């Protein structure tokens, strides 16, 4: 068997590339680095891209996603969610909507104020305690996917009604 003197650097390069890929942060890690809880995105984000100089991001699901929370809020996520992310603020969002009464409204901004998150649909907003977002909901069933999630929800999920901000 003939060995190349260049074989070791190639193997080391492959090792470092695979180690770097394994250590790359997830979309959920990215949220936390900007002071947001992981639960504002559903489970199943496959990948994302971010321009750190502008804050422009895209997060991707395998397909669209919808679920209900507390039986009163229905949420829909498109397969691509985009916007701009900064510490404690996400703006120009697209790909996320909430059903209010009979209308689907796009969530355009999310702001963190201490232990509250404010979700804006432009003409109105709603504040929720950050403890509502410690876990990510699952497409199709939200937080009611199994008894463990349901027990957690009964003890920890508190929501406030949608309020006008105009």
Automatic annotation (TrEMBL):
Transmembrane segments: none annotated. InterPro entries: At5g01610-like, DUF538. Residues 1-23 form the signal peptide. Keywords: Signal. SUPFAM superfamilies: At5g01610-like (SSF141562). The keyword Metal-binding does not apply. The keyword Cell membrane does not apply. Pfam families: DUF538. This is DUF538 domain-containing protein. It comes from Buddleja alternifolia. The lineage of its organism: Eukaryota, Viridiplantae, Streptophyta, Embryophyta, Tracheophyta.
